[in-house]
Structure formats: structure tokens, C-alpha cells
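Whiteboard transcription, Tuesday session. T.W. wrote the C-alpha cells on the left side:
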């Protein structure tokens, strides 16, 4: 499998401890080159693990989903940029938050990604939050806002990737969670898609968590995803 294909797969280290995450990374070896570290690992040494992964030549996506007053977001992004990670997420709810993140990033090579609508949410969930927009409509609205603010890309489900790509152009990154192989269980994801469909519709990177990290054989599971990516 060549490096360009490996780079498209981001394995989510959504595990209870850094020790378990390190064990998974060791098991996957050279097959996986890109990892996501989220809130679960943040409180159990996740930032130390992020730096270890970078020193070993891996790419790292910090999925922090930042949302706070502008000054706090700006300083948090500046700190993340100094860690040397590759991707960082910020909630794409409003322009002030997005502008603060861009200011905090400065000239660092860190890629900023706006979270549009979580893939675990559907129209009923959004209605509870007070919006009448459908998920696809809200994703597109927030993607355009992030693009205008100078973000590098968004987190969006494969179901909205084609519309985001059309609205933002080829250079804007689309990172897609909720990826399942054909016939795979949805779990707590409401808007899932397959690797082939997501990539065909414009996704650049696919985030895969439990289908790999909870598999009986994570290495074989990763290879299956890479094979589907290669076919796409």
C-alpha cells in the first residue's frame, strides 16, 4: 500500500488509556500513518502520546472540538500549534470563534478543521437544539463560514461531502468520520457512509474508530479499509 493511500486513513485512538492506544499503534505498525487523539485520551496522557507519535514519523490529528470565548480559543490553538500536530478541530458555530483560531494558529503549518454537524446527530437532534435546518443544510452553511474565515477544511459526513466540495473548491479539506465497510454496524452514528462513497463524493481523509480499534484483529481490519480506499 503506498503512502498516499495510507495518508487517507485516520485511525481514531478512542481508547480508555494511553497504554491501550500505544499497544494499538504498535500492533498496526507501518500499515497506519495517521492517528486521531480525542477528548477521551486527553486526560490520560494524550498530548504526550501525540508528541511520541510525531517523533516516530506519524501524522497526528487532535480532535479537541474547541468552543469558547475568542481569547481562550486563540491561546489554545497557539499551544496546539507549538506541539507540531497536523490537524486540530474547532467547532464551526460562529465567525468569532473561527477568526480567533486562525489568529492563534499564526504562520504554523497546523491545519484547522471546523466541526460542522456531528455525525451522531440527525434532524430531530438539531430540532432539539433550536434549528429548523436539515443536517446537510447546516453542514453547508458552516462549511462556507469556515472557508471564508480561512480554515483549511471541515469535518463532515460522507453524505454531505459532495455539496461541501462543490461549495468550497478542490483545496479545501474534507475529513469524514462515520465510515463503515459495506454491511458494517452503524453503532451510535446517524449519518454513515462507505469509503468508496465518501471518497467519490470528495472526502480527503476518512476517520475510522471502533471498526478498527475494537476489531478482533485490528491490523486485518485496517488492511480491509485500506483495500477499499485503494479500490476507490
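and on the right, the sequence the group agreed on:
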Amino acid at each position: 500500500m503506498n503512502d498516499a493511500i495510507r495518508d487517507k486513513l485516520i485511525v481514531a485512538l478512542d481508547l480508555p488509556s494511553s497504554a491501550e492506544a500505544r499497544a494499538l499503534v504498535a500492533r498496526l505498525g507501518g500499515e497506519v500513518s495517521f492517528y486521531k487523539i480525542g477528548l477521551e485520551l486527553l486526560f490520560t496522557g494524550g498530548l504526550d502520546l501525540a508528541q511520541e507519535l510525531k517523533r516516530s514519523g506519524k501524522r497526528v490529528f487532535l480532535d479537541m472540538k474547541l468552543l469558547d470565548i475568542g481569547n481562550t480559543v486563540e491561546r489554545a490553538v497557539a499551544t496546539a500549534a507549538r506541539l507540531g500536530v497536523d490537524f486540530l478541530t474547532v467547532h464551526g458555530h460562529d465567525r468569532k470563534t473561527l477568526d480567533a483560531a486562525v489568529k492563534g494558529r499564526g504562520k504554523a503549518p497546523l491545519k484547522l478543521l471546523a466541526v460542522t454537524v456531528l455525525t451522531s446527530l440527525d434532524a430531530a437532534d438539531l430540532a432539539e437544539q433550536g434549528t429548523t435546518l436539515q443536517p446537510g443544510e447546516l453542514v453547508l452553511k458552516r462549511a462556507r463560514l469556515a472557508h471564508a474565515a480561512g480554515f483549511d477544511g471541515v469535518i463532515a459526513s460522507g453524505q454531505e461531502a459532495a455539496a461541501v466540495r462543490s461549495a468550497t473548491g478542490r483545496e479545501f479539506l474534507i475529513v469524514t468520520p462515520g465510515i463503515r465497510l459495506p454491511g458494517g454496524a452503524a453503532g451510535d452514528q446517524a449519518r454513515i457512509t462507505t469509503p468508496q462513497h465518501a471518497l467519490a463524493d470528495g472526502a480527503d481523509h476518512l476517520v475510522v474508530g471502533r471498526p478498527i480499534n475494537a476489531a478482533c484483529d485490528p491490523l486485518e481490519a485496517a488492511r480491509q479499509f485500506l483495500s477499499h480506499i485503494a479500490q476507490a
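Someone added at the bottom: The chain has a mean pLDDT of 92.
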